[in-house]
Design brief:
The protein is mainly α and 110 residues long. Helices cover 70% and strands 0% of the residues. It is built from 5 helices and no strands. The radius of gyration is 33 Å and the shape is elongated. The N and C termini lie far apart (88 Å).
Length: 110
């Protein structure tokens, strides 16, 4: 069935459903046993998901980032940010600054 025919079927089915629901007065709210059963099922499923999950491993961000730097390439999620125009390579700038400071010390000592 194409999307258009499904959409037409949906709109054709909506008015009878709407009139049936609005004309029929609800005699009583949902039975208590259904509510209790639903809540119990939600609790059981939630507890099962939590207890069935694998233990989380601690992440050392420094180790992870070092591994990514060594491997490089497509595994680096920040590669697009690092390659953009105007991005500073902090390590290179720090090295450049240290060399400049050593040069200033040499000039001052002479």
């Amino acid at each position: 069935m194409s999307f258009l025919s499904k959409l037409v079927t949906l709109f054709e089915a909506t008015p009878p459903t709407n009139t049936r629901c609005s004309s029929a007065a609800r005699a009583s709210p949902s039975p208590h046993d259904i509510i209790v059963e639903t809540l119990a099922a939600v609790v059981v499923v939630s507890v099962g998901l939590v207890l069935g999950a694998e233990k989380l491993k601690p992440i050392s961000w420094r180790d992870w980032a070092g591994e990514i730097e060594r491997d490089g390439g497509a595994r680096n999620p920040y590669l697009s940010l690092e390659e953009r125009y105007g991005f500073w390579d902090i390590r290179a700038k720090r090295k450049e600054f240290a060399e400049w400071m050593r040069g200033q010390d040499m000039v001052a000592k002479q």
